[in-house]
Structures are given as structure tokens and as C-alpha cells.
Amino acid sequence: MHLPSILGIATLSLSGISTALAIEGEPNINAPLVQQHLRNREKLIALEKTHRQDHIFRQSLSPTAKRADEIVEAIRQDEIDHYWRVAGTLNEEERFAGEVFPLARPYISNTTLWRVIKRMPKGALLHAHLSAMLPYEKIVEIIINTEGMVISASQSLDTADAKQNATITFSHNNDTLSTTQSKIDASDYIPKTEIPVKDAATSFEGGEAGFIEFIRSKTTIPPEESIRHELGVDEIWRRFQACFGPADTMLQYEPVVRKFYQKLFEDLTSDGINWVEIRSGGSSGKLVHDGNEDIDPDLDAWWHVLVEEIEKFKATELGKNFLGARIIWSDARIKNRASITKSMKIALQRKQNFPELFSGYDLVAQEDLGRPLSDLAPELIWFRQQTEALNLTIPYFFHAGETLGDGNSTDLNLFDAVLFNTRRIGHSFSLYKHPNLIHQVIEQSVMVEVCPISNEVLRLNEDVLHHPLPAMIAHGIPTAISNDDPVILGQDVAGLSYDFYEAIQAFDNIGLAGLTERQLKAVSSSRVELSTPGCLPLAHAYAHDLCILPGNEGLKEASQRKCGGRRGSPVEPRNYGLLPED
């Protein structure tokens, strides 16, 4: 049969139907079936929310807390509509809420939501690695002004390629240097020649600012590299791990280490963090005392300094509400069995000598290329047996599931972590793929330390909108937001504000109340007893009225602050209809 005939039959048939049926009325929002659908919709949404991690907390919010949550949500939505939703032009790329962090970062500080997040108490930071916590320009400034600090390079730094390929090392030298060289970027520089850092910085191309920028290039991942997701996970991890070499050599000389800790605690406290648990230990803890050049063989020396600096900071005005810091002893999972066992023995000794300082044990570095937890079962079971025999409490806080895999060894680390009774899991990016394991994590109250910006920069998700955090929260998995390695990965600050901002701005179901509940759980998970006098202000700030500023005057201020408008221009302050006008 020819196509025109088929079309003709179809036309005749449709024409016959149209004359036989009478169409009555118009769609009506008030129709009983429509209203029934809308009621069923609300019930279904409400039922799902009962499974959320923050459901019970939201039911207990005070009127002040609910109002704060509403105000912040209004600010967020207003800025999505009027600040972030900007079409691209010939001179500027398109801007949108949730775009990749390195591109969004320059715009974030113009927003009212950012100012609210900066003021918010953060409570506990549970997942951060020591040598990647304080901006390197601050450490370099300390080093430049510390007598006897020297720098050396594996080759001359006279070309761009040489700067990129060279290895640099910081150390302390008491002696008068015999060399007359003062320019580390001179073409006649002799490799591994030590030059006073102050001289190297002053004579560097571009002066001290150029020197600091060079150090940043060796210790951070620049935005143009962090967005190259097409190059894959292994490539960015090679770049990432290379940053730790020079960074670790910065933190060995005692006067530098002491000033480093004071600056770090100042920055954490200024961002509303009152408690921090730091991954360190296995490859750290090498201390050169004031006026010396050699590392102290006493393995307690580094930790004595840390304890002293914690107490020193707590005695200051800024540190009066700082509750302290603990160390999660961390070994590189790529080490051989003998090295890991040796480090475990050192960890046990340190726990005996500093029972209040060390809170747990972890295995770190790239999971995909390191030993899976199942491979280290003999060592991990032996370690647990030793802690029991010595009457020590050293729970596991394993990195696990930091992968795109589904069923590979990194993904399956999650099962081992749960079987080893891990107290918390770092990243747990692939957990949402395992329904039975999710149930066990919830039943065992295992908290996930979520690091949104880290996961994005290390190419697990293209941007925050693709992060599994909302799925974890929706399933009821306990989560806390952390920052991992902030000064290497682009936040370039010690605090949590950027990761907090990314989470609240990207996801509609989190809000101020959701952030608050995350960190209240973090405070509890950090094993700080909320009943102790020192913790009452922190517990009050979280559990009662979500203070943005003392006395809640910050609620109104936050609702009326100016935010950046299109292309960064200011817009008129808004009341958002939630507070009475003056």
C-alpha cells in the first residue's frame, strides 16, 4: 500500500473520531482528582523526609531557628535568581549556581549568603591533613622572617620549564653559607645549593611576591588544572601528591612549627571552628629544635610542641572558646607491610605517652593505587589486638570508597571499613551504591566525613551539583562537612566556609538548619562531651537558636545586607518579607 493511502485512511479515521466525541470543560486546579493528587504528593514528600538525616532535628527547631532558616533560604534563592543566573557574553562566560568551584570562587565573596556562612559557628572540623591546612603564603612569610632558614632546588629555576620540573626543599642551617650565590633562579645556580630564604625571595624575579607565587605553583593545584576532568583521576592525583613534598619540608624547624600552629588555630577559630581532628603522624613529626640542624631522634618531641601550642592558644583572648585538637595517626596505604607495622608500633607508643592527643588511626593517600583494607587485614586486626592488650582506645577512622568505581577494590574498602568497626569514614563517595551497607552504616552510627570541594577538584564529580551528599542525607546517613586539603585544592583558607557555602548553595534541601544539624553531629562524633562546661557555648549555638550573631541581631542584618548583582554590581538590600521593616 502506498504512503498517501495510509495517510488518507489515518486522516479519515481521526476525522470520524473527532465528530463522534464531545470535549467538555477545561483543566481545573480545583477539580477533586487534581486536589487529591496534590494532597498525595505532599504526603509522599513528607514521608520521604522522615528518612532524612536531619528530620528529627528540624522538628525540634525553635521559632527563632525556623525564622533564621527561612531567611537564609530566601537569601539563597534570591541570589540564584538575580546573581548566579547570568547568561554569557563575548567578554564573560555564563554563570550559574553550582558551577565548578574554581570558576565560582571569585564571585562567592560578593554574596550575602557567603557573609552569613562566614558568621556561622562551624563546631568541629573532622577531616583535614596537617601540611595542607594553612595557606602557604602565610607559612612562607614565617620562614622568610626566621633566622637560618634556607632553600635549595634540584636545578636552576631560570626558565618556566625548570620552575615546573624542579624539586625544592626548605631546611635550617646554623652555619655561614660558603656560597656567594643568592639567586635561586639564576642560570648559574648550582643544584642543591642552600640559599637563605630571605635572599632567595628578595632576589627572585618579581621580588618577594614573585617568590611566593612560585612556591604556590609548587604547592597548589591551579584552577586551570583542577577543571581538566577529561584527564582523569590518576593525573590529578600525581599533581596533588607532588604538592606535599615541599610543603612537608616547611614544617620541621621548631620556631616555624610553633608559629604555624598559632596561625592555624587563629584561622580556624576566626571561621567558627572550636575543635579540630588532624590527619598526621606516620610521615610527620620530624622536629629540628631551635638553633639546630638535625632532626631530634626523640619521637615525642614534635607532639610535646603541639600540646604546648594548643594550651598556649587556648590561653589567648581569641582562643578562649577553642576546645582543642586531636591527631588521627595516618599511614600511607602504599607502604609495604613492614613499614606500616613499624609505624603502628610508633602510634601505640605515642598513644601511651599522649593519651588525650591521639584519637584514632587511618590509612591515607590515593585509594585506587594503594593497598585495599582487605590486603592489610592481618596488620589491622593485629593493631586492634594490641590496643586491647594495652588498654588503649584507638578507633579506626578509615578513608574508604573515595572512587568512581562500582565493585573495584577501592569501592569494596567500604565493606572492610564497616567490618573493622570504623568510627567514621572519610569521603565514602561510592557508599550510595550499596543499599545494605547504607543500612549498616546507619545502624552502627558511622559518620561520613564529606569533603565536597576536594571530591570535585580530584575529579570524582564535575561540580558540586553532581556530588552524592544529597543522596546520603536523604537515606539518613550521618554526615559532617570537612575540607580535606584546602590550601592545595583551591579554597586557600584553613576554615570550612567554602565547603559550607558549596553545600547550602547547591542543594535545596539542606539550608541553614541542615548545615547546623551536620555540624552538631560532627561535634558529637568528635567525642567532645557536650555536658562539659567548656562545650556548653558550642552546644547552645547549635542545638537551640542557630545564632548568626550574638543576641540574634545577625538574623535581620543577614536579611538586609547588600549582595553582588549582575556582573558584580551591588543590588538593593532586600527584607525578603520575613522580618518587620524598621
From TrEMBL:
EC number per UniProt: 3.5.4.4
Swiss-Prot/TrEMBL catalytic activity: adenosine + H2O + H(+) = inosine + NH4(+)
Catalytic EC class: hydrolase
Ranges for region Disordered: 559-582
Domain Adenosine deaminase: 236-522
GO MF, one example: metal ion binding
Keyword Secreted in annotation: yes
Cellular component terms (Gene Ontology): extracellular region
Statement: the UniProt record of this protein carries the keyword Electron transport: no
Subcellular location: Secreted
Cofactor(s) required, per the database record: Zn(2+)
Keywords: Hydrolase, Metal-binding, Secreted, Signal
Domain of life: Eukaryota
Signal sequence extent: 1-22
Gene Ontology BP, a term: adenosine catabolic process
A Pfam family that the UniProt record links to this protein: A_deaminase
Cited PANTHER family: ADENOSINE DEAMINASE, ADENOSINE DEAMINASE 2
Protein family: Belongs to the metallo-dependent hydrolases superfamily. Adenosine and AMP deaminases family. ADGF subfamily.
Protein name: adenosine deaminase
Originating organism: Penicillium antarcticum
